Amino acid sequence: MKKLILTILALTTLSFAPQKEDAFDTGEYFKFRIHYGIVNAGYATLEIKDATINNKKVYHSIGKGYTTGMSKFFFKVEDLYESYFDKETGKPYRYVRKIDEGGYTKNQEGFFNQAENRVLVKDYKRKSEKTILVSEDVQDIVSAFYFLRNHPNIDKLKSGEAITIDMFFDEEITKFKLKFVGRQDITTKFGTVSTMVFKPLVQTGRVFKEKESLTLWITDDVNKVPIRIKADLAVGSLKADLDDYKGLKSPLKVKK
């Protein structure tokens, strides 16, 4: 279930492209409280640090998801997602995906060759590796979250407009479509916050009821912070609210 939240965080921000000044910086940290129905199921966190790849300073983002309390006895989750991406272009160099969800495990790393539009995927569980061709502007699931918060025209989007992008996930490129719904003020633990509302179009089936089963609220300010997520699942509903944050590049705008 925590993988779902990390996935949503990335997928639901896929309409944003880079601008000159980033909406984030090293030291940014988010913590989300996750509810499955009325049950406090766990938490998901995202933070960004500095790292070096091939003697070049890059961003290193770390996403974690885990169950808490009684939830972990019924369905224990410990997920780790990481991404190393360029500070100027936002393009990814490397990703890590290490998950354990009720006994389902995966342990992979991907290494992007930007010059040749390829990614080398190493699967440590299967003890295998493969090289996959990708598109020029492809993002991994975590780098997309940061790369796509910086679109220079995000505030000009009109209700009903949708944007499609390429994202690399599960060893393939996914065409993802995101629809902007409108603006809304919502009540949070931090106060009333003005938000932009998006609906990513997802595949119906085992997890989601309908194509528009997900709703995302991001702050309508320069930070573009995901502050609330709701998902109508095939069984039950999931909600995640921003529970804690620090290191925002600009102060969070809260109405009195």
Question: Looking across the biggest beta sheet, what order are the strands in?
Answer: 8-7-6-5-4-3-2-1-15-14-13-12-11-10-9
Estimated helix fraction: under 10%
User: Order of SSEs, N→C?
Assistant: HEEEHEEEEEEHEEEEEE
How many β strands by DSSP?
Answer: 15
Distance between the termini: 34 Å
In round numbers, the mean pLDDT is 84
Q: In percent, how much strand structure appears in the residues?
A: over 45%
Structural class: mainly beta
Regions with pLDDT < 50 over 5+ consecutive residues? 12-20, 204-210
Shape annotation: globular
Figure out the total of helices: 3
Task: State the major sheet.
Answer: 15 strands, mixed
Work out the radius of gyration: 17 Å
Protein architecture, described:
A 15-stranded mixed β-sheet has the order 8-7-6-5-4-3-2-1-15-14-13-12-11-10-9. Helices cover 7% and strands 54% of the residues. It has helices at residues 2-11, 71-74, 143-147; strands spanning 29-36, 39-53, 56-67, 77-86, 92-101, 104-113, 118-123, 128-133, 139-140, 162-169, 172-188, 191-201, 214-219, 226-232, 237-246. The two termini are 34 Å apart. Residues 12-20 and 204-210 have low confidence and may be disordered. With 256 residues, the protein is mainly beta. Strand 5 (92-101) and strand 6 (104-113) form a beta hairpin. It has 3 helices and 15 strands.
Write the layout of secondary structure elements.
Layout: H1 2-11, E1 29-36, E2 39-53, E3 56-67, H2 71-74, E4 77-86, E5 92-101, E6 104-113, E7 118-123, E8 128-133, E9 139-140, H3 143-147, E10 162-169, E11 172-188, E12 191-201, E13 214-219, E14 226-232, E15 237-246
Parallel strand pairs: 9-10
Antiparallel strand pairs: 1-2, 1-15, 2-3, 3-4, 4-5, 5-6, 6-7, 7-8, 10-11, 11-12, 12-13, 13-14, 14-15
